[in-house]
């Protein structure tokens, strides 16, 4: 088997609680192994522990326990080797907004020890590759969000790293800019054999880009595999029922649970989701039962298993519910 380019073994990280709050265990035995040339997607809602993992693997933070290796180097013992082997594109923009695109790239190249002429060559090459040739001479503050993000990724590539870390690379981008970056990430892994660790809370992004997907929940990897394999493990169909009124007393849930071939019923506001052996036979039965009890329904949809269903299976809640629960938690 090929040597893993990335390894995280039983990582634990606890943050001290702010002002009388209890300590927070951000990572709770997180483990994964990624072969060279693979895009690992770390998928999880806000607060799942994705950024903490990236910080530990990029030597910016230390785990309380566990080990991690990047390109064969230990993140504690061989920090310099790890830093040389990696490119890191943080969540927040990293380019100097007052400098031009080319100035940012040149500075980065010089910091990584390239000669002036090599730095110019590399900067020109990267501007071209990311379609930023024309904008290269302009101050970065005049760039669109998508252009800034492309420059951030270009900055992470100046020294030709073997492993690239992209922390939520497309958050806040419009669909077109997101699609552009997806193509670029695919090219890096496909044509250049680069190993990429990408964190995301977009199911669609994980589905499209991840050669290997790790679903992270409460600081642990709860499911791992290719998106296709994870979806294929779920047999049958998913049924989603939109009710006019939320099922606050659980009547509808109980009603559905009695029907044959229906399981894993989850209530999410006005929506009930369930797994069924066959959508074609389950839907008439569901509609009949609801009609009998005069429960008004807005819509019923049947779909093949999605990553959201995979998430639901392994965490017991839908991805959307996990995201909004976390946002509420943060606001409290
Ligand atoms: N420096 C810190 N001090 C205290 N708590 C922290 C710190 N950094 C992260 N946390 C907490 O640790 C948990 C995991 O955070 P982390 O940023 O790793 O999650 P994430 O999955 O990357 O989320 P997001 O998608 O929002 O970036 C969260 O509850 C977060 O509030």
Task: Put the structure in a nutshell.
It is a peripheral membrane protein. This protein is an alpha/beta fold and 332 residues long. It has helices at 50-57, 79-85, 101-111, 116-129, 145-157, 175-190, 203-209, 227-232, 251-257, 279-292, 307-315, 319-331, and strands spanning 4-15, 24-35, 39-43, 65-70, 73-74, 86-89, 163-167, 195-200, 212-217, 220-225, 237-243, 262-268, 271-276, 297-303.
Describe this structure in words.
With 332 residues, the chain is of the alpha/beta class. It folds into two domains: 4-231, 3-Layer(aba) Sandwich (Rossmann fold), CATH 3.40.50.300; 235-304, 2-Layer Sandwich (Alpha-Beta Plaits). Helix content is 38%, strand content 27%. The protein contains twelve helices and 14 strands. It has helices spanning 50-57, 79-85, 101-111, 116-129, 145-157, 175-190, 203-209, 227-232, 251-257, 279-292, 307-315, 319-331, and strands spanning 4-15, 24-35, 39-43, 65-70, 73-74, 86-89, 163-167, 195-200, 212-217, 220-225, 237-243, 262-268, 271-276, 297-303. The strands form three sheets. A six-stranded mixed sheet has the order 6-7-8-3-9-10, sandwiched between helices. A four-stranded antiparallel sheet has the order 2-1-4-5, with helices on one face. The radius of gyration is 23 Å and the shape is elongated. It starts with a strand and ends with a helix. Mean pLDDT is 90; it is low at 327-332. Bound molecules: adenosine-5'-triphosphate. Adenosine-5'-triphosphate (ATP) is lined by residues 15, 24, 26, 44, 46-52, 201.
């Amino acid at each position: 088997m090929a040597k893993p380019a990335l390894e995280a073994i039983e990582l634990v990280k606890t943050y001290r609680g702010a002002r009388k709050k209890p300590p927070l265990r951000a990572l709770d035995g997180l483990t994964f192994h990624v072969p060279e040339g693979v895009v690992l997607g770390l998928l999880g809602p806000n607060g799942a522990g994705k950024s903490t993992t990236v910080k530990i693997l990029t030597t910016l933070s230390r785990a309380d326990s566990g080990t991690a290796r990047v390109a064969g180097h230990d993140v504690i013992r061989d920090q310099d080797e790890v830093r040389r082997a990696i490119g890191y594109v943080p969540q927040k923009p990293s380019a100097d907004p007052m400098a031009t695109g080319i100035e940012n790239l040149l500075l980065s190249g010089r910091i990584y020890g390239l000669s002036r002429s090599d730095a110019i060559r590399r900067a020109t090459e990267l501007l071209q590759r990311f379609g930023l040739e024309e904008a290269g001479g302009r101050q970065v503050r005049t760039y669109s969000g998508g252009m800034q993000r492309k420059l951030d990724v270009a900055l992470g590539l100046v020294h030709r790293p073997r492993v690239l870390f992209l922390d939520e690379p497309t958050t806040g981008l419009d669909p077109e800019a997101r699609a552009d970056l997806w193509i670029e990430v695919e090219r890096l892994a496909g044509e250049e054999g680069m190993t990429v660790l990408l964190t995301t809370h977009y199911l669609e992004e994980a589905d499209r880009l991840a050669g290997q997907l790790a679903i992270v929940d409460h600081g642990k990897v709860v499911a791992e595999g290719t998106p296709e394999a994870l979806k294929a493990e779920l047999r049958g169909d998913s049924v989603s029922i939109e009710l006019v009124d939320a099922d606050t007393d659980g009547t509808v849930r109980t009603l559905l649970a009695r029907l044959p071939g229906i399981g894993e019923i989850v209530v999410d506001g006005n929506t009930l989701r369930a797994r069924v052996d066959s959508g074609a036979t389950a839907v008439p039965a569901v509609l009949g039962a609801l009609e009998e009890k005069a429960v008004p329904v807005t819509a019923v949809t049947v779909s093949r298993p999605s990553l959201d269903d995979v998430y639901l299976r392994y965490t017991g809640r839908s991805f959307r519910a996990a995201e909004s629960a976390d946002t509420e938690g943060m606001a409290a």
